[in-house]
């Protein structure tokens, strides 16, 4: 059986199991479950195999940092997206070519979870990443354009602003934690996905302290609370609402 045939079989079994649990007709429900069990026995499939088939993966190649040490704000943003969508994620690398044809190592972020959640996670991460980039540019231009600061100080304040911005976003998103059963399925899926290539621990670089860092972080927090997730992107806005994501407003 090819991979495509196996996916079709798993899809059919999942539909039968769903029909068996949602059908008000007891006879039809029992018949659907029995047919699903027959197919599972015939093809030597366990309930765990069927559950693993529900796990999907979505990859973001629009990461605004290719540093070996992941910036703290980027790691926090990925964590917030996972918290809000019931996904899990890991950072990886991929190769691309520059305009001059030279090979470059670029960062990627892999979201994985049940059903449509990874696609929703990718949507949320893409939207928030763009808004964070724009908010940082506006803040750095308006707050420090006429001030003579060291380059490193500007970089530190930008990182402080970004970390504060992510905290502000976290304040206006509802937490969505998968059940223990779902978490076990995700762990099993990740083990199979990675095989012998175990994931290494992240090297995270937190924002450095500097003169004016508190003001920059507070400004980021206030801007992050204004983040908007209701703009459509690849048709994911409706799925976002289905996961009960909410936007917040300043209390002031």
From TrEMBL:
**Where does the record place the DUF7168 domain?**
66-203
From the UniProt annotation, give the residues forming the signal peptide: none
DUF2786 domain: from which residue to which, for each copy?
A: 8-46
Entry-linked InterPro entries: DUF2786 (IPR024498), DUF7168 (IPR055592), Phage_B3_Orf5 (IPR016868)
Q: What is this protein called?
A: DUF2786 domain-containing protein
What is the organism of origin for this protein? Answer: Hafnia psychrotolerans
């Amino acid at each position: 059986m090819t991979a495509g045939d196996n996916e079709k079989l798993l899809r059919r079994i999942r539909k039968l199991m769903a029909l068996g649990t949602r059908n008000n007709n007891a006879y039809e429900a029992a018949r659907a479950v029995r047919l699903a069990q027959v197919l599972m026995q015939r093809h030597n499939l366990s309930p765990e195999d069927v559950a693993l088939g529900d796990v999907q993966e979505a990859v973001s190649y629009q990461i605004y940092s290719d540093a070996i040490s992941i910036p703290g704000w980027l790691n926090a943003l990925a964590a917030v997206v996972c918290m809000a969508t019931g996904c899990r994620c890991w950072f990886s690398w991929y190769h691309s070519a520059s305009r001059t044809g030279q090979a470059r190592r670029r960062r990627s972020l892999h979201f994985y979870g049940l059903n449509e959640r990874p696609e929703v996670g990718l949507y949320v991460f893409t939207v928030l990443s763009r808004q964070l980039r724009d908010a940082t540019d506006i803040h750095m231009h308006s707050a420090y354009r006429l001030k003579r600061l060291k380059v490193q100080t500007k970089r530190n304040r930008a990182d402080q602003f970004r970390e504060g911005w992510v905290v502000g976003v976290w304040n206006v998103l509802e937490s969505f934690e998968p059940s223990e059963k779902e978490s076990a399925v995700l762990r099993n899926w990740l083990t199979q996905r990675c095989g012998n290539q175990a994931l290494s621990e992240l090297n995270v670089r937190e924002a450095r302290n500097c003169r004016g860092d508190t003001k920059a972080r507070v400004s980021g927090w206030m801007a992050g609370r204004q983040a908007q997730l209701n703009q459509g992107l690849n048709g994911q806005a409706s799925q976002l609402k289905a996961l009960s994501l909410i936007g917040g407003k300043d209390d002031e």
